Structures are given as C-alpha cells and as structure tokens.
Amino acid sequence: MKGRIVMCAVALSLALLPSAAAARPVRIGFGGGMSVPVSDAENAFKNGFHGKAMVQWEAPVLPLGLRGSVGYSQLDLKSAATGVDNKAKILSGLANVSYGFPVGPVKPYILAGVGAFNIKTEVAGTGSTSQTKFGIDGGAGVQFKLGGIAGFIEGKVENIFTDQGLSTAIGSSQEFKTLIIPVTFGIFF
Question: Which terminal residue of the chain, N or C, has fewer Cβ atoms less than 10 Å from its own Cβ?
Fold first, then answer.
C-alpha cells in the first residue's frame, strides 16, 4: 500500500514538472496608450500618450505579484497658442504590488504602488522647468493568454504630489493637483 502511494506521488510530481517549468515567474513587458488628465490637471493639459517598460514577478502559488516599471508620458499644455509647441514630459519609475484573480485564461487584477515622477514643462519664450516629485498610483486590469505571451489592458490613476512650482511653470496662480489616468495596452514575454 505504501509503495502505491509513493508511486502515485512520484507520477503526479513528474506530470506537474513540465507545467511548473513552463510557468515563468519573471516576465518582461512593454505597453503604451493614452494619458488622460483629470481634476486640476484637466484644466492645464490636453490628452497625451505614454509608453512603459516593465519587469514583473508573480508568486508561483499565491495570486500576488511585484512589478517595477519605467514610463514616459507627454501631454500638450492647453494654454499654448496655435502653432506654439508647449509640452509637459513626465518620466516615471514605479514599484507596484498586484493581486490577481485567476478565473481561467482571462485574469483580472488590481495593483497599487509608489514611485517618483520627473515633470519637465517646456513653454515657448520662457524656457523649461523640471522637478521630481513623489507619487502613488493604483488601478485594475485584465491579463489574457496569447500563446506563449500574455496581453494586458489596464487603467490606473497616477497621483503626483506637485506644488506651486509646477503651477508657475504652466501659468497658474493656484496650487496644482496632478492626477493622470493612463490607459495601457501591452504584452508580457
């Protein structure tokens, strides 16, 4: 009887070995999409675009994951006159924790994190200003299988803790709250 239990345990282990080797806990991803300013940022910026590069680690047994990302966003300033190229460029580095809900080939997830955002505004005639600020983000997404890779769609809210310095750069006399919603489409290898 003990021999049969041991044989069954060995057979089960060998059967699961190829699937465990195929599951990669560390993945590299790329994505991009539209950046939508909201709240006070909506009064200063037009919709823009962004791109991101990510490294993601998913726990083999738990539905938790860690993600590091570097992103670049560009938004036009609303106060720009016709033919004048005034822009805000945001370079970000974020660390996120995610929690996935495995429900088959489609995997919804939530994530939240912290990071740094360097905001550079270029205003014609006055030059450019740059400042690095702390920020937080959070959102939700859906990951789905595409053969050996995984596609994803996610939306987040990025809250950048800006102050009067950025308000002066864009020509505002009041304190400025920067909230941006990036909607990202991408893949993980």
Answer: N
